[in-house]
Amino acid sequence: MSKREPETDATDFVIGRHAALETLKTEGASRVNKVFLQSGLKADALGDVQRYAKQAGIPVQNAPKTKLDLLSDAGNHQGVVLAITPYPYVDIDDLFAVAAAKQQPPFFLILDNIEDPHNLGSIMRTADAVGVHGIIIPKRRAVGLTSTVAKISTGAIEHVPVMRATNLVQTAKELKKRGMWLFGTDMAGTDYRQWNAKGAIAIVIGNEGKGISPLLKKEMDEVITIPMVGHVQSLNASVASALLMYQALAVKQPLGEIG
């Protein structure tokens, strides 16, 4: 799969040991410009990071905690910060190529204006776990692939391709032309436990507060609901998407076939 070049030459950062190791162990290592390690930490705690950086020929610099705090915007860097070129995005053909390479029906997520990087990172982590072939996000009014997303995803950002669409409605129409079924979430719809998720599907998750935009909702083939019996009548976007992704996996790969 050929990823497009980043849209900016700015430097981004990967923070935290798990995210840093996953980046250094994958193709993402080619985008790492320098590894910053916190001075004074025990060598064994950062030994794997140093080893993978050395294997990839990436310069390593010891720096005081204050510098790493600055680079990570006071995030929980655990003594490791990677300076990298920004994460690249793919196009729609790349997403279908991932599914074709695995000889599986396409399984995508469409995230309609998700704004919280923690939600996107968590969604990416689950998407990798269940075998989603790609995620589609809008170019505007939504979080992109940032250092916070990378850390929360614990490395999944290196494995789940992401497309940024200029117009989600037009992208939805294109997916339907290619034979995909689109399933959105709403308060009134088919109980997700009775949902037929077989075949080529895309799950559409709406904005944390507003849900799926009206024009995009018109493109849905079916609306899915997650029943709730408590006082709160909505779920966090990452929790809702996780429930739907695992239900889709259960339908696509019944018990005994997963693994």
UniProtKB/TrEMBL annotation:
The keyword Ribonucleoprotein does not apply. Residues 13-90 form the RNA 2-O ribose methyltransferase substrate binding domain. Keywords: Methyltransferase, Transferase. One of its GO terms (molecular function) is RNA binding. InterPro entries: Alpha/beta_knot_MTases, Ribosomal_eL30-like_sf, rRNA_MeTrfase_TrmH, SpoU_MeTrfase, SpoU_subst-bd, tRNA_m1G_MTases_N. GO terms for biological process: methylation; RNA processing. The keyword Transferase applies. One of its GO terms (cellular component) is cytosol. Pfam families: SpoU_methylase (PF00588), SpoU_sub_bind (PF08032). Belongs to the class IV-like SAM-binding methyltransferase superfamily. RNA methyltransferase TrmH family. This is tRNA rRNA methyltransferase. It comes from Loigolactobacillus bifermentans DSM 20003. The lineage of its organism: Bacteria, Bacillati, Bacillota, Bacilli, Lactobacillales.
